[in-house]
């Protein structure tokens, strides 16, 4: 099979890239991890490059065989998981360096906001990037070798070193935290504030309140919300980045604050709005746990169906546990 | 003219209200959050992943700790999404169930330990903000969220494990 080099550019508001990459004998799978079958961008990449396309939800392939992974991540997990593994990543959502794994998201391995028209054949003679794989292992090995060579030093020196080590850890923990706040927490706060501002001041809030307060203020209503969110064909779509759960959480919080929903429904509501948690992420999560392709094939439907049963159960348990609260 | 002025005032009013909300979130939540997350992150670095791994492995032997303590340790120490790598310690038939348990815990844990999933805090913060607005305390709600979360992931683990094993044996029979 002849393979062609392709050029992947970022879309409007996208980030990263452009990537000029070419499949080879070993890496020739376009892994489409987008929740709803194979999306057009994966299809297009496969057609142009000559690689074969695989639905990451139905099956999985070894990381070494993946030529490029196509995800639709809202900015929490999937967008970082593949770059961390050294796999070229195309994100259909225009998300830049974000999420807990933001440090692995670099321009030379990741491109986002990609649409079908951003996928083109590379020009003749364009330089093809090397597979980025296996870059991260080398320094680690060197570090452990260095550690092995260390001689025993005097008590004072050792004491000083260990104190220094602890202080360093505190410092880098602080750095990590601030990075997290800037990358993830503040942007979401800005988004939430805008939403709350518009909703509460424009009067839309009252309309929404009339619609959701009666539903969310009763056990039956919460169970209905939960079952709908847990439907196996909806749950993978509602899952990404927990954005839906977070926005609905904010809505309900505003209504609780206004007194439209009694506070004792807070606990069951936390479970009712979230039976879909991680349903978009099953194949990725399982491959992080080094599951075989057969396990992934079975695991996806197993988790999705389990949610239909355990979702409503969780709401009932939370309801029982909210007695005596508030 | 008056109409236009009113319109402009209404328009900017939306964003003034949003700005006030933002200010409230930033000054009310972030300071404690930053210090708390820094503290927990330091503990995680000092303890080290190897020690956690060694201890966690012991928790995989029976179904009870496999779907409670084990995912708790995974989510607490490795945080979302690296927590799922703990699946490697389990047999294939338990992996989907472990994933289900771990991923279902990434929000209940945020009430008390926001570091574990700082990117998705608003499932908890959204609702708990409402409670705060009523002038009620949220710590008891956070504790109950965690406890119910543990019960739910145990049930999810057991149910998903059953379904997985059923489907695997059906496939073998084919």
TrEMBL record, chain A:
Q: Where does this protein have coiled-coil stretches?
A: none
**Residue positions where Phosphocysteine is found in the record:** 73
Gene Ontology molecular function, alphabetical: protein-N(PI)-phosphohistidine-sugar phosphotransferase activity
Record has RNA-binding as a keyword: no
InterPro entries named among the record's database cross-references: PTS_EIIBC_GUT_C, PTS_EIIBC_GUT_N, PTS_sorb_EIIBC
Residue ranges crossing the lipid bilayer per the database entry: 180-199, 211-234, 304-325
Q: Could you give one GO CC term from the UniProt record?
A: plasma membrane
Source domain of life is: Bacteria
What are the PTS EIIB type-5 domain coordinates in residue numbering? 2-186
What does the record give as the organism's lineage? Bacteria, Bacillati, Bacillota, Clostridia, Eubacteriales
Concerning PROSITE patterns, the annotation shows: PTS_EIIB_TYPE_5
Protein name (Swiss-Prot/TrEMBL): PTS glucitol/sorbitol transporter subunit IIB
What keywords does the record list, in alphabetical order? Membrane, Transmembrane, Transmembrane helix
Tell me any Pfam family this protein matches.
EIIBC-GUT_N
GO BP term (any one): phosphoenolpyruvate-dependent sugar phosphotransferase system
List the source organism.
Alkalibacter rhizosphaerae
UniProtKB/TrEMBL annotation, chain B:
Alphabetical GO biological process terms: phosphoenolpyruvate-dependent sugar phosphotransferase system
Pfam families associated with the record: EII-GUT (PF03608)
TM regions (residue ranges): 20-47, 67-86, 142-159
Q: What Gene Ontology terms describe where this protein resides (cellular component)? A: membrane
Q: Which PROSITE patterns match?
A: PTS_EIIC_TYPE_5
Q: Which InterPro entries match?
A: PTS_IID_sorb (IPR004699)
Indicate the secretion signal residues: none
PANTHER family, A to Z: PTS SYSTEM GLUCITOL/SORBITOL-SPECIFIC EIIC COMPONENT, PTS SYSTEM GLUCITOL_SORBITOL-SPECIFIC EIIC COMPONENT
- Write the protein's name: PTS glucitol/sorbitol transporter subunit IIC
Source organism: Alkalibacter rhizosphaerae
> What high-level taxonomic lineage is stated for the organism?
Bacteria, Bacillati, Bacillota, Clostridia, Eubacteriales
